[in-house]
Amino acid sequence: MSWHGHLSLHYRREAARTLVHDQHSGPLRLLRSLYPEGPHICHNVLVHPPAGLAGGDELTLQAHVATQAHALITTPGATRFYRSLGEAARQQVQIQVDAGARLEWLPLETLCYRRALAENRMTFTLSPGAEMMGWDVLALGQPAGGEAFDEGRFTQHVELPGVWLERGTVDGTDQRFLHSPLGWAGHTVLGLMWFAAGEAITPQRSEALLDSARVRLLQHALKACAGATAPHAQLVLLRVLGPRVEPVMGLLRAVWALWRQEAWGLPASAPRVWQT
Q: Which label site among 73, 175, 257, 275 has the fewest CB atoms less than 10 Å from its CB?
C-alpha cells in the first residue's frame, strides 16, 4: 500500500510573534512551534513517521509565509527514498514567501538508496521584498554499508520561478557520469545552498555573501570540490561535492551561520533537533 501525505502551513505575523496554522492528511505532520530566538522567528520540525518513501508514495508540502513573518523549517532526520519495484516515489514542496517575510528551508539530508525511483521537486516563489536561505543535500547509495548507487534514478528539481531552475536526473547505471570530473567525480554527496531575494540583491550585499562563503571554503577540507557564485541578481549559490554527508552538511551549516549574520544581522541559532 502506498502512503500519500499532505501538509499545509500558513505563517503570519501577529504583533511581535510569528504564528503558524497547519492542516495535514496522511503521514506528514508538524511538531509544535519553538521560539529559541524570541517570538518573531518560528522554528518548526516536519515529521514523517514512516521514515521513508517507497515506490508509489507521495508527500506534498504547501506553505505560505505572510508579510513580516519569519519561518525556519527543518527535519529531525534524513529523508529516505527506498528501492522501488516499479513505481516512482515523489516529494513536492511549494512555498510562497510574501514581501517583508523570511524563510529558512533547512532539511537534513536526502538519502537515495540503490534501485530507488524518486523525484524531489521544490519550488519557492518570492515576492519583491521577500528573502530566503535554503539548502539541499543529496546522498547516493549507502557507502558505509558497501552499497553503491549503481541502479535506480533520482530526479531533482529546485526552482525559483523566473530566477533559477536546477533540474537533473542521476541515473545509477551512468557510472561514467558519476565518476567523471565533469560529473560527480566519484563522490556520493551533492550539497546546494542558496540565498535568494524577490528583487535584486545590491552588488555590495551579494559580494559580501560571496566573500564570506569563499573565505570559509578556503578553510575547509572540501575546498577543491566547492564553489560560490551569483548566477542571477537575485541569487547567491554554493555547490559542494563530498564523499560523506557529515563534512558537506558541516560546511553548509558554517556558511548558513555566516550568511545569517551578514544578511540579517542574526546569530546562528541551530534547531534543537540538530543537536540530538
A: 275
Strand partners, 257: none
- Residue 238's contacts (CB-CB under 8 Å, 6 or more residues apart) are 191, 192, 193, 194, 213, 217, 226, 227, 228, 252, 255
Cell of 120: 524531489
- Best CA proximity match to 199, nearest among 162, 166, 228: 162
| Residue range 89-139, pLDDT digits in tens | 999 999 999 999 999 999 999 999 999 999 999 999 999 999 999 999 999
What is the C-alpha radius of gyration for the chain, rounded to an integer number of angstroms?
18
Q: How far apart are CA 134 and CA 236, in angstroms?
A: 11
Cell for 273? 533537533
- Nearest-angstrom CA–CA distance, 187 and 82: 20
- Measured between alpha carbons, how far is 80 from 139 in angstroms, rounded to an integer? 10
Nearest to 118 by CA among 203, 166, 52: 52
Q: Give me the residue label for grid cell 513573518.
A: 69
- For the chain, how far is it from start to end, CA to CA, in angstroms? 32
**Cell numbers 519553538: residue:** 34
Chain segment 251-260, per-residue pLDDT in tens: 999 999 999 9
pTM above 0.90, yes or no: yes
Contact (Cβ atoms closer than 8 angstroms) between residue 123 and residue 132: no
Q: Is the dihedral of CA 185, 110, 230, 203 positive or negative?
A: negative
